[in-house]
């Protein structure tokens, strides 16, 4: 065989190696693309709210940051007693990661938490 020439078996082995690596790379790109879409606000946001305060929380509302369009009560029939953690879900807001949250406390006070990025963290702690 002359220099620079490849045997047909070497070409077949190289092609097989490239084909085998191709789907894995596509799957990696697809999964990282899915993470990017989720981090860009691609669907409903599920997060854990920890009540680090001394007063229970009886209702939680969310709105895309800077808007006044508050959601229905995210707590529903549950409450977030002092020291407890609950899991909540904000409805689908495509392209939105940052929300303003409003808490209705058991004593009737309301507390606002502005600019919460639910794509960056799925843990929110109220500490009032």
Q: Would you kindly provide a written description of the structure presented here, covering whatever features stand out?
A:
The chain has 128 residues and is an alpha+beta fold. The chain has 2 domains: 1-39; 45-126, Domain of unknown function DUF5300 (Immunoglobulin-like, Sandwich). The protein has one helix at 8-39, and strands at residues 45-51, 57-64, 85-90, 98-105, 110-117, 123-126. The protein is globular.
Relative helix content: 25-40%
Q: So how many helices?
A: 1
Question: What coarse outline follows from CA principal-axis ratios?
Answer: globular
Secondary-structure-derived class: alpha+beta
As for the number of domains, it is 2
The stretches of 5 or more residues where confidence is low (pLDDT under 50) are: 1-39
- What do we call the CATH topology of the largest domain? Immunoglobulin-like
Detail the topology: elements first, then pairings:
Blueprint: H1 8-39, E1 45-51, E2 57-64, E3 85-90, E4 98-105, E5 110-117, E6 123-126
Parallel strand pairs: 1-6
Antiparallel strand pairs: 1-3, 2-4, 4-5
Brief summary of the model shown:
The protein has 128 residues and is α+β, with helices and mostly antiparallel strands.
Keywords:
Immunoglobulin-like; alpha+beta; 3-stranded antiparallel sheet; 25% helix; 3-stranded mixed sheet; disordered N terminus; globular; 128 residues
